[in-house]
Design a protein that fits this description.
mainly alpha
Length: 158
Amino acid sequence: MGKWFGQASEIEELRTENRRLKEQVATLEARLRAAYADAGITALAGPSSPVSSTDSLAPATASSLEVSDAEMELLATGPKIAAVKAYKDRTGVSLKAAKAAIDAVPVPTSAIVSTSLELTDAELRMVADGRLVSAIKAYRDRTGVDLKTAKATIDAAR
């Protein structure tokens, strides 16, 4: 038995972590190149590290990796998975990269504030009666938003 035989699981974990970090660096580089390209700066038009030609992204392609207005709307109003799916379908990136890109976008607080105006009379009565859990559940069932957004909306109505 070799020296490394007993450490096979640790080596596999390190390989997995290495792959994850490489994907994260590639995503960040693509986003940085896209930001520079949108600003008209050509300093980062090519890849910053030696990678294969299939891994590099031209500025025009990198611009498509930015989150679109439609995806921002999905992120603000609906479940996050809808925005991830739309991003993945539009850009062709992996699910992991799409989730990382959507996670990097902060949810605008205006989305939470604007949804507070959408409470029904029944939901407002539940809030007034102190039945917050019921109000959150009713709001989520009606709108399809995630728990965090529903709770923030109901809390804002208190």
